[in-house]
Amino acid sequence: MVDWTPKPNLAVDLKRLSLSAEEGFVLSRLDGGTAASHLPALTGLPPERLQTILQRLVEQGALQPPPSPQRTAAAPASPPQEPPEAGEAPEDDEPPEAQANHRQLFETRLHPLDDHTRQARAHAAEEPELSAFCFDPVPAVIKAVLENPRVGLGHARLIVRHHRHPAGLEAVCAKAAFAADGGVRRWLVRNPQLPGGLFRRLWSARRLMELHKVMADRDIPEGTRRTARELLRQRFNSGPSEEKVELILHTEGRCLLSLSGLPVDGKTASLLCGRPYRSSLLIQNLARWTAAPPALIAHLLKQDAVRQQPQLRMLLARHPHAPTDARQNER
User: Which of 218, 177, 182, 221 is nearest to 203 (CA)?
Assistant: First the structure.
């Protein structure tokens, strides 16, 4: 669905509009600051259905119209593309055969040179030597490569993929364009020498879901996954409610095991209580979440999926925040 931020039209008297129950429900979930891409997680409605409802609300005047896309004389402007996440392969990585050739060139012709000679040579190197120098284990040589005017994203990706010294990785990420590249980030988190402080700086503003993907990716070194888990817990305490709900729903509650002991704010609880639940796995994980708000437990007990499955009802009734009548009924 097209991503924009639906904002209620305060100049319109909603009582005069003929809104369906579904349209009224969606409208009640809009606070003027939640992006449309977050609404499926908050309402339980599919994106296509939500798009239709939002369009009708705009047509009736209940919502302010979305901003018109800027157009150039030639063609519509392309929306900015987000960099690939940790688990996505960048499309323009150098082929393995080329990497093998560059490594062989380094090992046979460049590595035998002393460090100072390699450093001086890397400053002005051209291809294929420039790519070969990306395999150098000495941080000073890597810094010389990065000072070469011919260096580009391909070289940065080679370095973070193969270099095994924290100082060299820090040097790559000192350049904002390299640090923001999805390919660089993908290989960086897989590098066992990635400093925890560097990971925190680069991922502290990322979405909770992206942090969880790093934490759950078994191809990523354990130290980085542990740092991602710590950062996820910190960000969960202070992050936007919409991101918290997105994380819980998209992982079907699997993330809650890593978030044990962390309470949620009132808005997050309200958003969780404002949608239907059909997934047995999600309900089970929420029922095992000791920090689940009492209102959420009460809401889950009303769901058809819970009423039809006694084991789910029993699990919820045993929750410390379950309503008293639910506990008594299960005795």
Answer: 182
The Cα–Cα gap between 232 and 230 comes to 5
Q: Examine the pLDDT at 269 and tell me if it is beyond 90.
A: yes
Residues 305/278, Cβ–Cβ less than 8 Å:
yes
* 186-222 per-position pLDDT tens digit: 999 999 999 999 999 999 989 999 999 999 999 999 9
- Cα distances from 38 to residues 29, 43, 119, 127, 187, in angstroms, run 11, 9, 49, 46, 28
What pLDDT shows up at residue 190?
96
Of 325 and 268, the structure prediction assigns the larger pLDDT to 268
The residue assigned the tokens 């409610």 is 241
Structural tokens at position 141: 């040589």
CB 118 within 8 A of CB 141: yes
Paired tokens of 45: 């409605």
Helices 153-162 and 96-105: crossing angle in degrees, nearest 10, is: 70
